């Protein structure tokens, strides 16, 4: 993760280094009810969540104070089972996400 910043009350923008020489731009839009739109400039993004979007959300959960408590509120209140279910469904839709999650999980031990 190169940077994560709040652009306005309902938008977070992050720059994530991927396999391409230029970082990917991830945008999260939300309102009081939760996420309303997510985008990523990576070649794998096809309208659904890619691993870069998941990385930004995990980063926001890991260090919510660095971005804003509003971003972590999107996932706030979800218990461990619900978060695991969410990540498992994302991994099922994006097979390359499983390898990335395996690498990242060592950060949280």
Task: Describe the protein's architecture and organization.
It contains five helices and four strands; from the N terminus they run ββββααααα. With 109 residues, it is α+β, with helices and mostly antiparallel strands. The chain has one domain (3-108). β3 and β4 (34-40) form a beta hairpin. The chain is globular.
Key words describing this protein structure:
109 residues; alpha+beta; 5 helices; 25% strand; globular
Strand line-up across the major sheet: 1-2-3-4
Mean pLDDT: 80
How many β-strand stretches?
A: 4
**Residues in helix, %:** 40-55%
| Tally of DSSP helical segments | 5
Q: What value does the Rg take, in angstroms?
A: 13 Å
The SS-based structural class is alpha+beta
Share of β-strand residues? 15-25%
Between the first and last Cα atoms, what is the distance in angstroms? 19 Å
N to C succession of SSEs: EEEEHHHHH
Number of domains: 1
Low-confidence stretches: none
Largest sheet: 4 strands, antiparallel
- Label the overall shape: globular
Outline:
The chain is an alpha+beta fold. It has 5 helices and 4 strands, in the order ββββααααα. The protein has helices spanning 51-62, 64-67, 69-72, 80-93, 95-104; strands spanning 3-8, 11-16, 24-31, 34-40.
